[in-house]
Amino acid sequence: MARPGSPLLLLGSLCASLLGGAQTDPRAEIANLRQHTHPAFTRIVLDIGTLREYTSGELRDPDRVYVDVLQAKLNPILQNQSYPCQAGYISQVRISQKTPSTVRVVADVDFAKVLSYRVYPLFDPFRLVIDIHPVDRAGVHGGADPSGNIPSAKPSGLPPDPAPSGYSMARQLGLGVRTIVIDPGHGGPKPGTIGKSGLQEKTINLDVALALQKLLRDKAGLEAVLTRETDIDVPLENRTVIANQKRADLFVSIHTNAHRDRNRGGVESFYLNISPDPEVNRLAALENATSTKNIGEMKGIIQKIVQNSKIQESRDLADKIQRNLVKSLAKDLPGIQSLGVKGGPFWVLIGGEMPSVLVEISHLSNAREEEKLKTRKYRELAAEGIYDGIMEYIRSLGKG
Known about the structure:
Blueprint: H1 7-19, E1 28-30, E2 32-37, E3 42-49, E4 54-59, E5 64-70, E6 72-74, E7 81-84, E8 90-99, E9 102-109, E10 114-122, E11 126-134, H2 169-172, E12 179-184, H3 201-218, E13 223-226, H4 236-245, E14 250-257, E15 267-272, H5 278-287, H6 298-306, H7 311-329, E16 338-344, E17 356-363, H8 367-373, H9 376-396
Parallel strand pairs: 1-6, 12-13, 12-14, 14-17, 15-16
Antiparallel strand pairs: 2-3, 3-11, 4-5, 5-9, 7-8, 8-9, 10-11, 15-17
Helix pairs in contact: 3-9, 7-9
């Protein structure tokens, strides 16, 4: 939970004031949570009313199952509420405003006593259900299960999860991927990072993007469009405009990283979100430096970030690209570090109407990685890793 005066709470206040009150608030208000422990399982129901994307997962030390509802806010009556449960495998259910635009529900459990759990949506009105089944089929009241059967991890009559993080709008509607816009970062008089040897980021980005385009077209039969195919300057604000005009299903922006610490190296990927992390914001400031927007436009900019409805799919796409990219580059640079997947306020991702990610394929400021980035082999491995991540994402939609 954020501390009073923390950057996250201060940012929440800023967003609230800039968005101008409840009438323009795009978040769904949540005012009701129900839970009941049955003889054979515990059911938690979150009434939302308005269709919303969500993610779910589990955490350890202490054990808990969580669900994050995106573009949502809590009614004050529910803020930081907890509900005790009369079961040996689950102690309580908690709910809170995790970020200014995310509501989190947490079930405190003992995984040693949990057989399975299931998170799924119900409609008309929209609500999320968490069912938690204990290992002990005798239940909390000591009565044996009349059937004598242990339920599977996926109770009958419920739709299968297409991804571990839960249902997004794209998955609920059974949508696939046909068109991908690839964005080679920088270009023209804006070279981006320049290595000690004089190697320019814009050149690397374009080479990797062209190789990725060829893979997507030739191996997967997908339509792949570049925001620039030569050394020209495309304004940051126009790159997602191109993707929207092409009705793209995915947007991938390719960059090469830089850091003051020349020992720092590795791969990291980003999706659009507001971040309290100073390191993420440092990189965002670097990548956003060529924006033509002014401070007077801040309200509209923050509004676009907070209203972004593709967070879950963008994060899933970034996760898969990150993992596959590190695996691919390690073939030529063993031990290359994965710096993870993070949300950040990157201009090049703002306004995209599709899942959008920014990939920093390596550090041009790192001497070892700069030497590799000079070679065609390493750039092709970068393209292959991004390609593998995209294809894994498509398969996760049940479409590949």
